[in-house]
Design a protein that fits this description.
Blueprint (H helix, E strand, L loop, with lengths): L5 E10 L2 E11 L4 E5 L6 H9 L6 E6 L2 E2 L5 H7 E4 L11 H6 L14 H13 L15 H14 L4 E5 L7 H18 L2 E5 L3 H7 L2 E6 L2 E6 L1 H4 L2 H8 L1 E7 L6 E8 L1 H12 L3 E4 L6 H9 L4 E7 L3 H9 L3 E4 L7 H13 L2 E4 L10 H4 L10 E4 L13 H11 L3 E3 L2 H12 L4
Parallel strand pairs: 3-8, 3-9, 6-7, 7-8, 13-14, 13-16, 14-15, 16-17, 17-18
Antiparallel strand pairs: 1-2, 1-4, 4-5, 9-10, 11-12
Helix pairs in contact: 4-5, 5-6, 11-12
């Protein structure tokens, strides 16, 4: 028998003193769709990043078709694994066909142009996801659901035997969710692709997946066919939700109908919602310890704006914290800034980590202007006078203005937690 398309053996991942994954095992084969599910912060995205080779495991091994991921070059990995992220904001309004051609780079000679075969494969991928008639339009003209299909088409153009999807249905309405997963299901059956998809919606997982793998606190707690795994006792144990098991009379498939929070979970979740949301502004690893301290105290959290692959964005993914992402080394776009301001508008308190400020992320400080008059704003300053301003003094000026508006300087995470508790205690 040929080796599994993906083999994860005894993988653990640690970030400092926090364990994101604990000795996880997982196998997936060609022609199989595996749904990876679990609560926020359970380790789903971390596991996908380990398989992809973006996060190095602290222990254990990952093999792709029998070859350790660590032995593969970046180009070799791109030929074997295709990646559909939860979200990707195009920087330029390139033609849809050109965007799909990005998926052919791993098959092209270095600095070589695309071939007629590359264009034929990219056009075929667009046809498979129902976007052939949009090939000459700009990517900015596509809807959110169409952009997700575009990411899927780019992955298909890679012609990789393994497809990883991180919450591909997030931010999509139910029609686009069904459409996208039906297309992934068709690729698995038609092309023999091995697909692993992180999904929050358990009923979608049960409808489309061959197997469901459940993570909780970084551990694999269930692995099997949907009917065996998705049960009321598991939902109560892992998600803290009481549910009824129903059966669709037309398809015969079972589905879960959530009724209420379990008594054991109700108190803790309610406390977390009362104590937040707290929005954390950071970058470059400065926010990670603060996010973990706040998460441990059951605060509801958001964060941003952070570059993709930044260690703070990795901390958000590890903890299940929603955040606004930007392309690395790029100035914050108007769309990213608008989404970041919306998160700050929804926050009941804002924490500013001691992050290095340069021209690309200066907007994070600019968009804080005036907020200290309406919500508590805490500015971490563990080493007063430390040089973190690479904007010719503009960042320092903005921090002084923030202090004049009422922002509170705090020296460390302990002081932050104490002040937040005082200001938000008992608030509805």
């Amino acid at each position: 028998m040929s080796p599994p398309s993906v083999s994860v053996a005894g993988v653990s991942v640690r970030f400092g003193d926090r364990t994101a994954l604990h000795r996880v095992d997982l196998e997936a084969r060609s022609g199989e769709l595996v749904a990876l599910t679990g609560p926020n912060g359970s380790g789903k995205t971390t596991l996908l990043r380990v398989i992809l080779g973006l996060t190095e495991p602290s222990e254990g091994t990952v093999r792709i078709s029998g070859t350790p991921t660590a032995d593969l070059t970046t180009r070799e990995r791109a030929r074997r694994i295709a990646w559909v992220p939860q979200e990707e904001l195009p920087r330029d309004n390139v033609r849809v066909l050109h965007y799909v051609l990005y998926g052919r780079y791993a098959h092209q000679p270095s600095f070589g142009p695309e071939s007629a075969q590359d264009r034929e494969i990219a056009s075929g991928a667009l046809a498979e996801v129902g976007l052939a008639d949009r090939a000459d339009q700009g990517v900015f003209e596509l809807s959110g659901g169409e952009r997700q299909r575009l990411l899927l088409a780019r992955s298909l153009a890679q012609e990789a035997p393994v497809l990883l999807l991180d919450e591909p249905t997030a931010h999509l309405d139910i029609g686009f969710q069904l459409d996208l997963l039906e297309r992934v299901r068709g690729l698995v059956q038609g092309r023999g692709v091995c697909a692993i998809a992180a999904l929050h919606d358990l009923n979608l997982a049960g409808r489309f997946a061959d197997r469901v793998v459940v993570l909780s606190h970084g551990r694999r707690v269930a692995d099997g066919n949907p009917a065996e795994v998705l049960t009321p006792p598991l939902l109560r144990e892992v998600w803290g939700v009481d549910a009824d098991l129903k059966r669709d009379p037309r398809s015969g498939q079972t589905y879960l109908l959530p009724r209420r929070l379990s008594d054991a979970a109700r108190g803790g979740i309610a406390r977390g919602v009362r104590r937040g949301p707290v929005h954390v502004v950071g970058g470059g690893g400065a926010a990670g310890p603060l996010l973990r301290a706040l998460a441990d105290e059951q605060y509801a959290l958001t964060a941003g704006a952070l570059p993709l692959l930044d260690s703070d964005s990795e901390a958000c993914e590890e903890l299940g914290v929603p955040y606004v992402a930007e392309i690395p080394f790029a100035p914050l776009s108007d769309e990213v800034r608008a989404r970041h301001r919306a998160m700050m508008d929804a926050a009941r308190a804002i924490v500013v980590a001691p992050f290095a400020v340069g021209p690309t992320n200066l907007a994070n400080l600019e968009d804080l202007a005036g907020r200290a008059s309406s919500v508590p704003v805490l500015v971490l300053d563990p080493t007063p006078g430390a040089v973190r301003d690479f904007t010719g003094g503009r960042a320092t000026e903005l921090l002084r203005q923030l202090a004049a508006e009422g922002a509170v300087g705090v020296p460390d995470a302990s002081a932050m937690l104490r002040i937040l508790s005082e200001k938000l205690s008992g608030a509805a």
